[in-house]
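Sanity check

After download, print the first record. It should look like this:
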Amino acid sequence: MSSKQGGKAKPLKQPKAAKKEYDEDDLAKLQKKKDEEKALKELKAKAQQKGNFGGAGLKKSGKK
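Expected structure tokens:
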């Protein structure tokens, strides 16, 4: 019976970060970023409904 313990050592727990207090400028930036992400997500969903453009890939010429 040795005093060493086998197995993987558990990592130390990190203290929880304190909640940040935002001023009006920070809140405006966060809201703008959130709106842009929402608009981008809507555009992606709309683009997927239409399907692929062309669908033929790269077109090769008949010349050799």
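If your output differs, re-run the checksum step. Summary of this record's structure: The chain has a mean pLDDT of 80.
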